[in-house]
Amino acid sequence: MDNLILKATGDERNSYRIPAEAADLSKPFNAEVAGKGSEPLLIKDNIIRFQKKTPSGISMAQRSNLLPPTAKMYENVWRKRSIGILSGEYFSFEDEAALLCDWADPQPGETIVDLGCSTAFYARSLFRRQPDATQIAVDFSLPMLEEARSFAESEKANMYLLQADASALPLYGESVDAVVCGGSLNEFSKTEKVLWETKRILKPGGRAFFMYLLKAETLAGKLLQAGSAGGGISFWTEKESEKLFADNGFETEKSERKGVVCFQLFRRIE
Ligand SMILES: C[S@@+](CC[C@H](N)C(=O)[O-])C[C@H]1O[C@@H](n2cnc3c(N)ncnc32)[C@H](O)[C@@H]1O
Hints:
- It is a single chain.
- By secondary structure, the protein is α/β, with parallel strands linked by helices.
- Helix content is 34%, strand content 27%.
- The chain has a ten-stranded mixed sheet, sandwiched between helices. Strands 1-2 form a two-stranded antiparallel ribbon.
- The radius of gyration is 18 Å and the shape is globular.
- Helix 2 crosses helix 5 and helix 3 (93-104) crosses helix 4 (121-129).
- The chain has helices spanning 60-64, 68-87, 93-104, 121-129, 142-154, 191-201, 219-230, 238-247; strands at residues 4-7, 15-18, 31-35, 38-44, 47-49, 111-115, 134-139, 160-163, 176-182, 202-213, 250-258, 261-268.
- The chain starts with a strand and ends with a strand.
- S-adenosylmethionine is lined by residues 62, 65, 79, 116-118, 121-122, 139-141, 144, 165-167, 182-184, 187-188.
């Protein structure tokens, strides 16, 4: 795996070179990386602590993911069953991993970002499919990244774990081949800013895989979503999401719906 180059906040000329050892999750890695003209960046237990403070203006839903008990239960209690429960159709965790890997199609030497990764289910799945690609799993929740590290370590999956805000990524423009994002789009409070960042970091023609929830059409679904909306979760109709992605520079390549759950593969428009 290559070293990871991060840009410091505020000035593109200031960068941090993160050693590849940080992505080897079989060994604890701790360091302070000096930045050119910026304060040192702490890497503790392999997690790159770029965003140390909780970002301001976050929703109740986002805040709940900063809590260790949420992170502990997230994958085994909720995520493994979530698509089946939300769509009302049989669709296993393994089915979702296969769909992600077939569509995102990771290639040797590529760099792929898992945005709002929680336990890094997507980055771990992509690593299994293509160990010669570099995975960068990004979340602003430290407890989630700690869980990601523990799952990835037990599966011998290597990746960079980056604590950062998806709406202000410390990655250089046109530096990644693909971005994948499972379920987090509904939760990002600054959706358009995150899509702008996604487009910015993608190479021209780069791929973006999103799984997100559409507005429900049944009464029960509408009631459930009305409750989540109060906590800061957004939902779109198919038409609204089409416009959201097109307006932010993405062209749909593939699309599949399972009830309200939508899987889409996009290309960055040049
Ligand atoms: C619904 S979970 C999705 C998890 C994961 N992608 C998956 O497929 O299981 C949303 C995650 O996005 C993270 N998140 C929310 N807003 C964020 C932001 N602005 N920057 C980085 N991470 C964010 C939360 O901490 C949480 O772990």
